[in-house]
Amino acid sequence: MSRPSNLASWYALQQEAKQMGDRHLREMSNNDQRYQELSRHFDGLLLDLSKQRIEPLTLQLLLQLAEECQLSTKINDLLTGQPINLSEKRPALHTALRLPANEELWVDGQDINLGIQASLDKMQQLVEKIHAGQWRGVTGLPVTHVVNLGVGGSDLGPLMVCHALADFKPKNISPVKIQFASTIDGSQLAESLKELNPATTLFIFSSKSFSTIDTLTNAKTARHWLVDKLGNEELVLKQHFIGVSGSTEKMTQWGIAEENQLLFWDWVGGRYSLWSAIGLPIALQIGMQGFRQLLAGAHALDQHFATSRLIDNLPVLLALSGIWNINFLNIRAQAILPYDGRLKYFPDYLTQLEMESNGKSTSLKGEAVDYATCPVLWGELGPNAQHAFYQLLHQGTEAVNCDFIAPVHRYHEIEDPEARKKFQDQHRLSLANCFAQSRLLMLGDAAVPKLESDQPMPHLLYRGNQPSSTLLIDELTPYSLGQLIALYEHKVFVQAAIWNINPFDQWGVELGKKIALATEQALLAEDQQVNPEAFDPSTSGLLKHCLTTIKQ
Ligand code: F6P
Fold it and tell me: Mind telling me which residue stretches traverse the membrane in this protein (predicted)?
């Protein structure tokens, strides 16, 4: 494919943006058809783009761009296991992880769904053993607490989903409490170890590579803590550790018993891995049935992505509206704003999914791109962010594209009618805030009728014209969360397909890992000297400061 910036539709979109100029969303939104034209439903999900600075012609041109970039062929290549991760010469097959058990997917002469289903079955056995109180530590007590040791994709996905679906704990099982420790400085682990009983604690050592220093360090500390308290290292390893990785050899080398190893494949990227055995904490939290519901929701979205016309395709539309903002309106910031406390970690999860995937500046052909790619993305629970950074959205100098995300229904399962009403009132208030904010961002102070006596005071002005998308889900369940995550995965893929970049590698994080090791050596210097040849003056200064002040 030639550069997208050389395509006729790219040029036409540039002209469209020029033509649109400073036209305010207030004007565009004054059209009764707009909501119908720019919103789409699929299976309990609603995507509304009517608060985007998009006209019918814009959408047409964006779809033309998608076609000129051969998007449909690329989607097919993704889903059928073509080796589209060119720099690592392999496919990206996270979608295969959510295939129904009776489907086949032949890649390189193998039906890969056989291995996937076998891995799910092994995971199920472990989960059921733990839930039945049959997994016992070295003292014979059943496991009650599980700590997931992992970082990046081996942490953020499971953490986000476990938090979001905490209400979906299955009844009639021994509850296990799940905690997460990722930080290399050990602060989360130190906190957990203060409270935990080693006799009833199980660690999941979760790392695709099984060589990430952050997780290795935490696992070493956990192992030391267990052996110190319980003795007998061999039994500790056997009864207090499960390993999840792409490498059996490395797990065995570290001491994980074979029966406690869950394996996944090199064609699952870390940030796309929560559907694999990396999702073990999720299955422990919501049961295997719930985990399979999560997979089913994602699969339904995969089907929609594969078969819907581009004009009705939710991930395609979400991606194209992003492309419009980034490449043609020059809006390089993206905020993720869920209006449901259970989605607290969803923005964090998306920062890795989007920025590690599409934070690239080299095309698939190895050329430097001459257009912007992934925006700076951040987010927070919307109602809390209203009291933190919304000031910038309303009156700052930056244009920001916002995604508002909310479930329509909540709390209907609460049995006590009075408590149910109280919480449903709170949910309604949250939804009202969500809609009020997106409306205000769109219209500015025109959202509120003016009194004649009102004086136009500059510091009271809301300029509006901030674009946003709204994503509503009927209710938050394992199934709908699966859909929501897959929707964003595919959005990322579509944007990468248009930018002609590889969303499945992350070479930009490798160098940092290497030089951190050399830097650690410098911090160990007994003579407290820093080799001036090895470091720049700024870093030397910091190292010297620490070497002379660190307390042993
Ligand atoms: O350093 C980045 C990264 O490689 C991510 O892509 C990945 O999710 C994370 O580290 C953890 O990697 P692993 O699962 O191999 O420990």
Answer: none
